[in-house]
Amino acid sequence: MAIKKTSKEEILQESIKLFKTKGYYNCSMANIADACGLIKGSIYHYFKSKDEIGIESLRYIHNYFVDNIFSIAYRTNLSDLEKMKLFVKKTDEYFLNSKGGCLLGNLALEVSSENLEFKEVIKEYFSAWEDALIKIFENKYGRNEAKNIAIEYVSLTQGAIMMMNLYETPESYLKVGEKLISLI
């Protein structure tokens, strides 16, 4: 195999795809190298281990959501309804175009009971998601009720992502976003 130039970000993007579709434990460093067009040893120039790739992949997705989706909740130039519509739209764009579902949801089920570092990063992501929804809902419902709604809808969204992937149809997933918008 010819050695190809790549970047740490390209390795993370390919790893994320593999972890979502194959699972974390079913994905090897050789699989990641193949997906990147590299020889296995080349990966070690960027990452010490598969666990390091796993943690960095989780952080990569978390940062994407913080920058592109969760941040919408804190914008002062939009009404709560505008925030929620944009929040749902951006979330939909991500998950409807993301084969394999939610990396953090998948790894929460697969590895968080065994890998505490993964578990903490995953919890940070879901807490940030809940906090963003709380921020949008608290003007209408108050902090405590907004928190209950946020927890419920993050859970519903994750379940709907799973069902969308299982049945290969977005219908039930899209209903969650519609319901979120109707609550504002």
From TrEMBL:
DNA-binding segment(s): 28-47
GO terms assigned for molecular function: DNA binding
The keyword Cell division is annotated on this UniProt entry: no
Swiss-Prot/TrEMBL keywords: DNA-binding, Transcription, Transcription regulation
Record-annotated HTH tetR-type domain positions: 5-65
Record flagged with keyword Transcription regulation: yes
InterPro entries assigned: Homeodomain-like_sf (IPR009057), HTH_TetR (IPR001647), Tet_transcr_reg_TetR-rel_C_sf (IPR036271), YxaF_TetR_C (IPR054156)
Database matches in SUPFAM superfamilies: Homeodomain-like (SSF46689), Tetracyclin repressor-like, C-terminal domain (SSF48498)
Pfam family, one: TetR_C_13_2
PANTHER family, alphabetized: TRANSCRIPTIONAL REGULATORY PROTEIN (PTHR47506)
Protein name: HTH tetR-type domain-containing protein
